[in-house]
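tokens incoming
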């Protein structure tokens, strides 16, 4: 998308529940027939954070947004767009974004909405926010990924319940006039798609039309694994994304992939021919927090100094739907 404007990331923030659960603690507390060794070997996950009393998708989103605004140095009155990517909202409606808007007292003319593209949601929300900024008069947007999958997993299904965790991450975007003669900054390209025929492979068993309860996670792990590796490890897809940004694989400083499983990330790295040293990995610490994995990992890598101004960062997401998305950002 060519424009006289560029959409830069100017701040990040994240929030995790207070309580962290190691594999061993979770197995003991839930009475699972599993082991720390099995979970680490098959997924790379060592621990996850799980919400307790008073913590919800909304509170995590709100805290991540507040931290991102503080790191950007932008007050709530300036935010013109707030999008929360989530498939575990507190309520069927209003949106989590509306709850955050009310609590943080954002501007009267701020657009608020939730995006549900499951684990792919953050990059989808980034695309929507970029489009709204480019089409309208708002100068600042906040994009959030926030989830509490602990409220959706079946705690009797050991093949899924050990994989997920709760958390939220947020970025603040700013629309700037593009400076001629300088390298383009900010979001350089975004690509998205889906294979809806695979929807039954990873879904919730419930919803408004199914008994009016949220349901639990149903997953065909092997199918999900196969498709995730094929999509995230595709040189052709990554090539299209980088080409649109006017870059090549050699220009990429960091890849921030969806954090579902370390083996998926390693297979994607191999497929793309990019060294694992360039991948930001947090799945060991956070497990799969669905739409929150990418902004959480971004915040970690920005705060620990890995991602620096000018770096080329490639985001890669894949999840239920099967919906997939990717983005290239010059930080
Ligand atoms: C779920 C996943 C880790 C399972 O790994 P796998 O190597 O495919 O393992 P399988 O499903 O073949 O199961 C192997 C055995 O381990 C068992 N098992 C499953 N979960 C277990 C657990 N938590 N602890 C111990 N054993 C477990 C299975 O019951 C099976 O036993 P069996 O051989 O007696 O039937 C893997 O398929 C995966 O990561 N898929 C992608 C999931 C994902 O990322 N989803 C979100 C995407 S956004």
């Amino acid at each position: 998308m060519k424009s006289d404007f560029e959409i830069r990331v100017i701040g990040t923030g994240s929030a995790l529940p207070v309580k962290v659960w190691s594999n061993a603690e979770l197995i003991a507390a839930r009475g699972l027939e599993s082991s720390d060794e099995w979970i680490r070997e098959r997924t790379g996950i060592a621990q996850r954070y799980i919400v307790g009393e008073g913590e919800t998708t909304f509170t995590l989103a709100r805290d991540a947004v507040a931290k991102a605004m503080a790191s950007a140095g932008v007050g709530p009155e300036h935010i013109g767009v707030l999008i929360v990517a989530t498939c575990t909202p507190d309520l069927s409606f209003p949106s989590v974004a509306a709850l955050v808007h009310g609590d943080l007292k954002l501007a009267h003319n701020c657009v608020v909405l939730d995006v549900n593209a499951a684990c792919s949601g953050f990059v989808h929300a980034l695309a929507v926010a970029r489009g709204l900024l480019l089409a309208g008069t708002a100068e600042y947007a906040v994009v959030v990924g926030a989830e509490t999958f602990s409220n959706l997993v079946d705690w009797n299904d050991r093949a899924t319940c050990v994989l997920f965790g709760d958390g939220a991450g947020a970025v603040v975007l700013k629309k700037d006039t593009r400076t001629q003669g300088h390298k383009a900054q900010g979001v350089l390209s975004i690509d998205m798609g889906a294979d809806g025929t695979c929807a039954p492979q990873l879904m919730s068993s419930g919803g408004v039309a199914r008994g009016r309860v949220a349901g639990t996670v149903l997953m065909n792990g092997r199918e999900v694994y196969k498709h995730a590796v094929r999509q995230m490890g595709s040189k052709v897809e990554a090539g299209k994304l980088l080409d649109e940004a006017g870059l090549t694989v050699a220009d990429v400083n960091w890849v921030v992939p969806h954090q579902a499983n370390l083996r998926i990330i390693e297979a994607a790295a191999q497929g793309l021919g990019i060294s694992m040293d360039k991948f930001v990995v947090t799945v060991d610490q956070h497990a799969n927090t669905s739409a929150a994995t990418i902004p959480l990992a971004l915040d970690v890598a920005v705060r620990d100094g890995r991602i620096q101004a000018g770096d080329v960062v490639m985001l890669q997401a894949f999840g239920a739907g099967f919906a997939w998305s990717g983005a290239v950002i010059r930080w």
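note: Residues 34, 38-39, 42-43, 119, 158-159, 162-163, 219, 221-222, 224-225, 228, 260-261, 288, 319 surround coenzyme A (CB under 6 Å).
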